[in-house]
Specification:
This protein is of the alpha+beta class. Helices cover about 40% and strands about 20% of the residues. The chain has helices at about 5-15, 45-60, 95-105, 105-115, 120-130, 140-150, 160-165, 180-190, 200-210, 270-300, and strands at about 15-25, 30-35, 40, 70, 90-95, 180, 230-235, 240-245, 255-260. The strands form 3 sheets. Strands 2-1-9-8-7 form a 5-stranded antiparallel β-sheet, with helices on both faces. Strands 3-6 form a two-stranded antiparallel sheet. The protein has a two-stranded antiparallel ribbon with strand order 4-5. Strand 7 (about 230-235) and strand 8 form a beta hairpin. The longest helix has about 30 residues, at about 270-300. The chain is globular. The two termini are about 25 Å apart. The mean pLDDT is about 95.
Length: about 300
């Protein structure tokens, strides 16, 4: 019988990626991982610690989530979605900016929120939750600007060159926003247990994560109407990841963090996206089976 870590490594190999992951049964604390303590670049996944910080500040009375923010087009952080892709002046509440940040990974919305709470506050939140290796070093606009700068005169086309990819600071955990898969599942568990924020604010965070529009990574492993997936993706050249919680109708809740890297520099690699869902399903199925064994033994009187 193949053990689960071996099955996970095989899934990553078959997809042509290297993988780093951690999965946690939120109820029992049982866990599975492949290099789960390795530091990874979080890319847009670091919008989740920012969201938690925003809601902590709201719970403390330091800000009002209905506060309106002017969003002029000049100086907006770059990105392909949301305000980052819009051309005209907008005015939105903090909580609606948070929706855009999480649902479509809007960099401009995220940086407006980051300006409001501060980078230091995001790092304090992580530290207060015991996430000592979860560190924000720059804004999302700075991340995108670094990719453009490091690509050089060749622009986006240069990102097809592995030598250019190798010099991207955004892919260097020593420079970039970073965490580990294990710390990210710990963060997710604290959100679902309402220990990261008040229950009201925790529910708001969970709602936003459930509104993410991308179904091609984590959610692809759980194509069932009665299984609920809430997550946040992150992407950079050759890097794809997602963290999220999978909830079953029997009450089972599983926090999962999966990151992949490809040798291919292609912008579209469906197998590298799909294996995030495959790996999550392998891990969650194993955790559910593990939980079922003592239950079956109890019922049989053993």
């Amino acid at each position: 019988m193949i053990d689960t870590p071996t099955a996970l490594r095989a899934a990553f190999t078959d997809a042509g990626v290297t993988g780093r992951m951690h999965a946690l049964d939120i109820e029992s604390g049982a866990e599975l991982d492949v290099c789960g303590d390795e530091v990874v670049c979080t890319a847009s996944i670091h919008k989740l610690p920012l969201l938690v910080t925003l809601h902590e500040r709201a719970a403390a009375g330091d800000l009002d989530l209905t506060e309106q923010i002017d969003c002029p087009p000049l100086g907006r952080s770059a990105g392909p979605t949301g305000l980052a892709a819009m051309l005209d002046v907008a005015r939105l509440s903090l909580r609606d900016l948070a929706y855009l940040m999480m649902a479509v990974s809007d960099n401009a919305a995220a940086d407006l929120l980051l300006d409001r709470v501060g980078l230091a506050a995001v790092n304090r939140t992580a530290a207060d939750l015991g996430l000592t290796r979860t560190v924000a070093t720059h804004s999302f606009g700075a991340m995108m600007a670094s990719v453009k700068e490091d690509a050089g005169a060749g622009g986006a086309q240069a990102l097809a060159d592995p030598h250019v990819i190798a010099r991207l600071r955004a892919l260097d955990p020593a420079w970039a926003n970073r965490s580990t898969p294990r710390e990210l599942t710990r963060l997710l568990a604290s959100i679902w247990r309402d220990t990261a924020c008040t229950p009201e604010n925790g529910a708001a965070i969970r709602r936003l994560m459930a509104l993410q529009v991308w179904p091609h990574r984590l959610a692809s492993g759980f194509p069932f109407d009665d299984v609920h997936v809430a997550g946040k993706t992150g992407s950079l050249p050759t890097l794809r990841g997602e963290v999220g919680v999978v909830e079953y109708p029997d009450g089972g809740r599983y926090a999962v963090a999966v990151f992949t890297r490809t040798l291919s520099t292609a912008a579209i690699v469906p197998a590298a996206d799909a294996v995030i869902g495959t790996a999550a399903r392998i891990a969650v199925d194993a955790l559910r089976e593990q939980a079922a064994v003592p239950e079956r033994s109890r019922r049989s009187g053993k």
